[in-house]
Amino acid sequence: MEEHSRESERDVPSKPTLFCPDCGHRSRSDGDWRVVKSCRDTRYLCPGCGAELTVRPEFPSRSGNRPVVAWRPWDGLRVWLRLWRKTTPA
């Protein structure tokens, strides 16, 4: 019983292993795969047959998501107060 469990443990690949569906090539995700990066995504291609395994989208960094000028809640109040002061007699 123990021999069978040892053999099956050896056959199980590590978690970050990718498999090529076309030719059966397998390697870790940081292994010998051809990685093609663009501004929108990263594509993993099989080094043996060239099949596309996965396409992972590229997400902008958190700093890239911020607006150039942030709106603050009190900005609207300031504008309203300026208009009110100009239109109200002293």
What does this structure look like?
The protein has a domain at 1-61. A three-stranded antiparallel beta sheet has the order 3-4-5, with no helix packed on it. It has a two-stranded antiparallel sheet with strand order 1-2. The mean pLDDT is 77. A hairpin with a 3-residue loop joins strand 3 and strand 4. The protein has helices at residues 2-11, 62-65, 73-87, and strands at residues 17-19, 26-28, 34-37, 41-45, 52-57. With 90 residues, it is α+β, with helices and mostly antiparallel strands. The protein has three helices and five strands; from the N terminus they run H-E-E-E-E-E-H-H. Helix content is 32%, strand content 23%.
Morphology: rod-shaped
Calculate the mean pLDDT score and round it: 77
Strand order of the largest sheet: 3-4-5
Low-pLDDT residue spans: none
- What kind of sheet is the major sheet? 3 strands, antiparallel
Secondary-structure element series: HEEEEEHH
- What's the helix count? 3
Structural class: alpha+beta
- Percent of residues in β-strands: 15-25%
Radius of gyration computed on alpha carbons: 28 Å
Give the beta-strand count.
5
Report how far apart the termini are.
96 Å
Residues in helices, as a percent range: 25-40%
